[in-house]
């Protein structure tokens, strides 16, 4: 399984990449939204783990572009806990 991890926090990204790698998954990790969007559009992934709060292009913008072009499963990684954020995540992807 090939996973794209888009997470700007170094500690969280390293932890997830290490854990997923040790579990046998191939993980590409980027800390920048624009780079993550480029990777997602240029490669075939089985899953994208996407931080919502990224500098520059954020997770909401990334998922909007992705959904217009492909139907890859996306798992949102976020500290947002408001009802409106949950609804937006469900609506987008």
From TrEMBL:
<feature type="domain" description="Response regulatory">
    <location>
        <begin position="2"/>
        <end position="93"/>
    </location>
</feature>
<keyword id="KW-0597">Phosphoprotein</keyword>
<feature type="modified residue" description="4-aspartylphosphate">
    <location>
        <position position="51"/>
    </location>
</feature>
<dbReference type="GO" id="GO:0000976">
    <property type="term" value="F:transcription cis-regulatory region binding"/>
</dbReference>
<dbReference type="InterPro" id="IPR001789">
    <property type="entry name" value="Sig_transdc_resp-reg_receiver"/>
</dbReference>
<dbReference type="GO" id="GO:0032993">
    <property type="term" value="C:protein-DNA complex"/>
</dbReference>
<dbReference type="InterPro" id="IPR011006">
    <property type="entry name" value="CheY-like_superfamily"/>
</dbReference>
<keyword id="KW-0238">DNA-binding</keyword>
<dbReference type="GO" id="GO:0000156">
    <property type="term" value="F:phosphorelay response regulator activity"/>
</dbReference>
<keyword id="KW-0902">Two-component regulatory system</keyword>
<dbReference type="GO" id="GO:0006355">
    <property type="term" value="P:regulation of DNA-templated transcription"/>
</dbReference>
<keyword id="KW-0804">Transcription</keyword>
<dbReference type="InterPro" id="IPR039420">
    <property type="entry name" value="WalR-like"/>
</dbReference>
<dbReference type="GO" id="GO:0005829">
    <property type="term" value="C:cytosol"/>
</dbReference>
<protein>
    <submittedName>
        <fullName>DNA-binding heavy metal response regulator</fullName>
    </submittedName>
</protein>
<dbReference type="Pfam" id="PF00072">
    <property type="entry name" value="Response_reg"/>
</dbReference>
<keyword id="KW-0805">Transcription regulation</keyword>
């Amino acid at each position: 399984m090939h996973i794209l991890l888009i997470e700007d926090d170094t500690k969280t990204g390293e932890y997830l990449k290490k854990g997923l790698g040790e579990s046998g998954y191939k993980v590409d990790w980027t800390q920048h939204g624009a780079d993550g969007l480029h990777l997602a559009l240029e490669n075939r992934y089985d899953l994208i783990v996407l931080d919502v709060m990224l500098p520059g292009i954020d997770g909401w913008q990334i998922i909007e572009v992705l959904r217009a072009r492909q139907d890859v499963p996306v798992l949102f990684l976020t500290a947002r806990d408001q009802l409106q954020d949950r609804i937006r995540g469900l609506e987008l992807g």
